[in-house]
Amino acid sequence: MAQGESGQTARKWASYFGMFLSASVTGFIFGLIGAFIGAAMFRGELFGFGDLAGALAGIIIGYPIGVIAGIFLVSRVARYRGSVALGFTGSILGGVLTMGLAEPLNLNINANLLFALFFIAPPLLGTIGFHLKLKWLRED
User: Fold this and answer.
1) Which of 36, 76, 84, 95 has the fewest CB atoms in 10 Å of its CB?
2) What is the rounded radius of gyration, in angstroms, for the C-alpha atoms of the chain?
3) CA of 136: how far to CAs of 59, 81, 140, in Å?
4) Alpha carbon 107 to its chain's center
5) 137 domain residue, yes or no
6) pTM value?
7) Contact 51, 36 (CB under 8 A)
8) 86 burial class (0-12, 13-18, 19+ CB within 10 angstroms)?
9) Has residue 45 been placed in a domain?
10) Would you place residue 49 in the very low, low, confident or very high pLDDT band (cuts 50, 70, 90)?
11) What is the pLDDT of residues 74-83, one digit of tens each?
12) Range of 86's domain?
C-alpha cells in the first residue's frame, strides 16, 4: 500500500469517527434538554414518579433528534459529501430498533446494556447511512 493511500484511509476513518462523536455529543445535549422538558411536564404525576418517567421519555425522544441535528450540522459545517436522508433514517432506525428489540432480545433485563446500545446505535447507524453511496441512483 502506498503512503498516499494510507493517509487517505486514515482521513476517511477520522471523518467517520468525527461524525460519530459529534452526532453523539449533540444527541447528548438534545437528550439532556428533552429530559428537563419531560421532567417538567410530568412533575407531580404518577404517584411522584412523573419526573423520572418524563425525563426518560425526554431522553428517548431527544437523543435521536439530537443525533440527526449533529449529522446535519457536520455535513454542512465540514462540507462532508454523503446522504443526509440516509443518515436521518439510520439514526431513527437505531433508536427504534434498540427499543423495539429490547423485549425479544432480553435487553431490558440489564438497563446498562439497553442504554449503552441506545446511545451507540443511533449515531453509528446514522454515520453508516450518511456515508453510504447509492451508485444505482447516479447516471455516471
Assistant:
1) 76
2) 18
3) 37, 17, 9
4) 18
5) no
6) 0.83
7) no
8) buried
9) yes
10) confident
11) 888 888 888 8
12) 18-132
In a domain, 101, yes or no: yes
Going by pLDDT thresholds of 50, 70 and 90, the confidence category of residue 4 is low
Distance of CA 19 to CAs 13, 36, 53, 125, 131, Å? Answer: 10, 26, 30, 11, 10
Is 13 inside any structural domain? Answer: no
Amino acid at 56: L
Return d(Cα 52, Cα 6) in angstroms, integer: 49
Q: Are 129 and 83 in contact (CB under 8 A)?
A: yes
What single-letter amino acid sits at 30? F
Nearest-angstrom CA–CA distance, 103 and 1? 46
Give the model's confidence band at 63: pLDDT under 50 very low, under 70 low, under 90 confident, else very high: very high
Domain count, the chain: 1
Residue 89 has pLDDT above 70, yes or no: yes
Task: From residue 77, give the alpha-carbon distance in Å to each of 19, 36, 68, 74.
Answer: 11, 28, 14, 5
Set of cell numbers at residue 7: 493517509
